[in-house]
């Protein structure tokens, strides 16, 4: 029997100050495969261990099949955990390792038939009588998974099970895990910092940062509609291009986005998303462009919705099936602080005496919005001033590349050459100065008729 798992405003606090997980809420349906994704130290393994019962819950509640289970002992939860380091007994054969939890449950029952069936499922029946030290890393991970499968658990909890394996074996076992969990139909919670695993395995991906849930969506939606700058930058290879910009919306004339040396003119008539940018007039914003949202081509080849830019080639990365061209467009890159670390260095400034009345009302209203993600909004730090990286009329270029464009492998460009670019505005992201996505407009944004 598979299991439904619900976490309602769950927090984990160590000592007096260290809040590893902060008001984490997530509902997992029976048979669903959910991936907890985020940088090292963001609290994803702590969430997994609270589900397993290996960590006490400081605040909030855990529901298993609708019943409060905060203090239920781990052995009564009917879950099986697969660890990063295999956790096999070196003095036992692989057969005994797989059958060990069965002997604990019922010492008198003969478990050999179930062990053999599990080994056949994983393709390791020929190594059952060997010891873990005689196996490769991939075989040891299969034995560890076999020990979990043999119990016929109600849920699988996997804590970065492939991180100790080489890339080729990791890809192979990733496909096996996807097939295996689909065949068994068991609820699975999978922890990883590898976005490739998350995007290929999960029915839904829960992105975490600093103990706070940032977004929960399908892999396709997390990539196409990131909720904030952190999610946009964490998901996608190569990393999304983030540029500081200002909206230019004159009363007469065409609306555009000022990137510093160049402007992106918005097509007329304006789309509903672009019309919303008018209220950002004169404000600092962040423009996000995936590498596939721009292409190297002259303005004469522009398709509907594409606008022209230009850039200077800094260098090229040949990837075999494609090439990545690093360009300098004279724009100022936006920096997401501590992207690979669990917590930002600085938090939003608050007035003395706590948040104001307006902020408290906004938070209270947001708590009732379906799909609202609680927690601090990602804040962008201002990059340190660098005299060599500023643009003035006397200095025509910024030295660092600010835009990466994906091209075909046969594209040959000379370093220092100026090339024409076409940007597809249909794939343009705009974030406010706090890092929240404002274009495309959030789906839960209230309309003007409310």
TrEMBL record:
Domain named ABC transporter: residues: 5-235
Renumbered residue ranges of the record's region Disordered: 333-355
Keyword Transport among UniProt keywords: yes
InterPro entries attached to this UniProt entry: AAA+_ATPase, ABC_transporter-like_ATP-bd, ABC_transporter-like_CS, ABC_transpr_MalK-like, ABC_transpr_MalK/UgpC-like, Mo/tungstate-bd_C_term_dom, NA-bd_OB-fold, P-loop_NTPase
Gene3D superfamilies given in the database record: 2.40.50.100, Nucleic acid-binding proteins (2.40.50.140), P-loop containing nucleotide triphosphate hydrolases (3.40.50.300)
Organism field: Streptomyces camponoticapitis
UniProt xrefs under SMART domains: AAA
Name of this chain's protein: Sugar ABC transporter ATP-binding protein
PANTHER family: MALTODEXTRIN IMPORT ATP-BINDING PROTEIN MSMX (PTHR43875), OSMOPROTECTIVE COMPOUNDS UPTAKE ATP-BINDING PROTEIN GGTA (PTHR43875:SF1)
């Amino acid at each position: 029997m598979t299991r439904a798992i619900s976490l309602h405003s769950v927090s984990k606090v160590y000592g007096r100050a260290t809040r590893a997980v902060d008001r984490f809420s997530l509902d997992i349906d029976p048979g669903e495969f959910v991936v907890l994704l985020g940088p090292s130290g963001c609290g994803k393994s702590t969430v997994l261990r609270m589900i397993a019962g290996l960590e006490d819950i400081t605040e909030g509640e855990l529901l298993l099949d609708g019943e409060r289970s905060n203090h239920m002992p781990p052995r009564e939860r009917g879950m099986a955990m697969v660890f990063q380091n295999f956790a096999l007994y070196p003095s036992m054969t692989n057969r005994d390792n797989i059958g060990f939890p069965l002997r604990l449950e019922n010492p008198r029952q003969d478990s050999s038939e179930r062990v053999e069936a599990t080994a056949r499922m994983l393709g390791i029946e020929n190594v059952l009588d060997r010891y873990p030290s005689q196996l490769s890393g991939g075989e040891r991970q299969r034995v560890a998974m076999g020990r979990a499968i043999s119990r016929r658990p109600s849920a699988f909890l996997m804590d970065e099970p492939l991180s100790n394996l080489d890339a080729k074996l990791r890809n192979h076992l990733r496909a096996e895990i996807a097939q295996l969990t689909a065949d068994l139909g068991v609820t699975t919670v999978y922890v990883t910092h590898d976005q490739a695993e998350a995007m290929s395995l999960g029915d839904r991906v829960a992105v975490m940062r600093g103990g706070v849930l940032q977004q929960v969506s399908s892999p396709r939606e997390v990539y196409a509609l990131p909720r904030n700058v952190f999610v946009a930058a964490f998901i996608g290879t190569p990393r999304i291009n983030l540029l500081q910009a200002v909206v230019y919306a004159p009363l007469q004339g065409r609306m555009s986005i000022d990137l510093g040396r160049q402007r992106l003119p918005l097509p007329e008539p304006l789309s509903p998303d672009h019309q919303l940018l008018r209220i950002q007039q004169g404000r600092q914003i962040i423009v996000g462009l995936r590498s596939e949202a721009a292409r190297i081509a002259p303005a004469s080849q522009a398709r509907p919705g594409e606008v022209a830019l230009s850039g200077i080639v800094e260098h090229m990365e040949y990837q075999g099936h494609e090439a990545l061209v690093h360009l300098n467009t004279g724009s100022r890159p936006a920096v997401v602080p501590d992207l690979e670390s669990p917590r930002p260095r600085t938090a939003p400034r608050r007035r003395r005496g706590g948040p104001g009345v307006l902020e408290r009302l906004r938070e209270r209203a947001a708590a009732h919005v379906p799909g609202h993600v609680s927690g601090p909004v990602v804040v962008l730090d201002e990059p340190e001033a660098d005299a060599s990286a500023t643009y003035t009329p006397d200095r025509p270029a910024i030295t660092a590349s600010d835009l990466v464009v994906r091209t075909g492998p046969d594209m040959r460009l000379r370093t220092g050459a100026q090339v024409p670019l076409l940007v597809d505005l249909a794939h343009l992201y705009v974030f406010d100065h706090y890092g929240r996505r404002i274009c495309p407009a959030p789906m839960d944004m209230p309309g003007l008729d409310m």
